[in-house]
Design brief:
This protein is of the alpha+beta class and 356 residues long. The protein contains 10 helices and 10 strands.
């Protein structure tokens, strides 16, 4: 697949799933319920807008993609008009606003992992400018990639904190852009869960790369530090142990399955895209820890090869991805080697068949 192709129908992707906000919207705490409902309404509006718009090619024809990022951070000043007021451009020194500084750094960390780890020049592999807006809305409990840029809410300071505090969240949302420009996985059912899983995988790898962690040292959490101090939980999702990230009176219990035995069939959340992503997430964790060392170097390379190799269909299911990832491992590292065996073992453990 041509990595520079223009995506046709970019989806609207939020890091906090609607099923979780639905739960909070039924809270007996009036403020929490109101904020959750407001966030859901805002997300619904933005999602509808994405369905009737398309992203146009932004890279200049004939321009050579740079090895340096081109970042711009804007401040919505608690409004909802995008992008807002420009507050930091590429190369500008850090300012007093920690949220702006974290967003800027997170864009850079994402750019660096894709460049240094996989030779990819920005989200579209053609030097796409990385834009982000912070301080979006009032008590907005989410962050999203809208097909063109990143947007961060400040959280409500109660259940959720500032959405720039988790580097993996920034990487997660930007990776939706990478998927958009490559396999363009449909955002429903298993292909949608794969779309979400790609973002969790590379979001975690971006954090691990930034912290210079090995697979054994990583926490394998998505959204660590994002939950408020009174919430009983550690993150939004756990790749190491799906279903254990939180168990809270307001948020409910983390519904993610780790294997196909517990696959959730639902019409909500686009067919459970944020829920069943736990299965391919866990497969990646198992493969990465089986191989050891730096997870982006072998396991991450295999996932990247599979995502960008041109054979992954937009409506691919888990078995399609599993089969292609094993083929990618063999193509890059050889038949019967440690990588091949780790992939086979991981997919078998989570119950995804490799046979066609």
């Amino acid at each position: 697949m041509d990595a520079s192709r223009t995506p046709r129908h970019p989806v609207f992707c939020t890091v906090v799933p609607p099923h979780l906000l639905d739960r909070i919207a039924r809270s007996e705490d009036a403020r929490r319920a109101r904020i959750a409902l407001s966030t859901l309404e805002r997300d619904s509006l933005l999602r509808t807008r994405r369905r009737v718009t398309t992203v146009q090619g932004v890279a200049a024809l004939g321009a050579a993609a740079s090895d340096d990022p081109n970042r711009t951070v804007y401040d919505a000043q608690h409004g909802t008009r995008l992008p807002g007021t420009k507050v930091r451009a590429e190369g500008d020194p850090a300012g007093k606003d920690a949220t702006v500084n974290r967003a800027y750094a997170g864009l850079g960390a994402t750019f660096e992992l894709f460049l240094k780890g996989f030779g990819r020049r920005s989200i579209d592999d053609s030097g796409l400018a990385l834009d982000a807006t912070v301080h979006y809305g009032e008590d907005y409990n989410n962050a999203f990639w809208d097909g063109q840029q990143m947007v961060f809410g400040d959280g409500d300071g109660d259940l959720f904190l500032d959405f720039t505090v988790s580097l993996d969240v920034i990487g997660h949302e930007l990776t939706h852009g990478v998927t958009q420009y490559t396999a363009n996985l449909e955002y429903y059912g298993q292909s949608g869960a794969l779309n979400e899983s790609m973002s969790d995988v590379f979001g975690s790898l971006i954090k691990q790369y930034s912290l210079e962690q090995t697979a054994d040292e990583a926490d394998w959490l998505i959204g660590a530090g994002l939950l408020g101090p009174e919430v009983s939980g550690v993150a939004l999702r756990s790749m190491k142990a799906p279903g254990t990230a939180y168990d809270d009176d307001e948020l409910g219990k983390d519904p993610q399955p780790a294997t196909m035995d517990d696959y959730v069939r639902t019409s909500r959340d686009n067919g459970g895209v944020h829920i069943n992503s736990g299965i391919p997430n866990h497969a990646f964790y198992l493969a990465a820890t089986e191989l050891g060392g730096k997870a982006w170097e072998r396991a991450g390379q295999i996932w990247y090869d599979t995502l960008t190799g041109g054979e992954l269909a937009a409506d691919a299911d888990f078995a399609d991805f599993a089969r292609l990832s094993v083929a990618a491992a063999v193509s890059r590292y050889g038949d019967g080697g440690a990588e091949h065996q780790a992939l086979q073992k991981a997919w078998s453990t989570v119950g995804v068949p490799l046979a066609g």
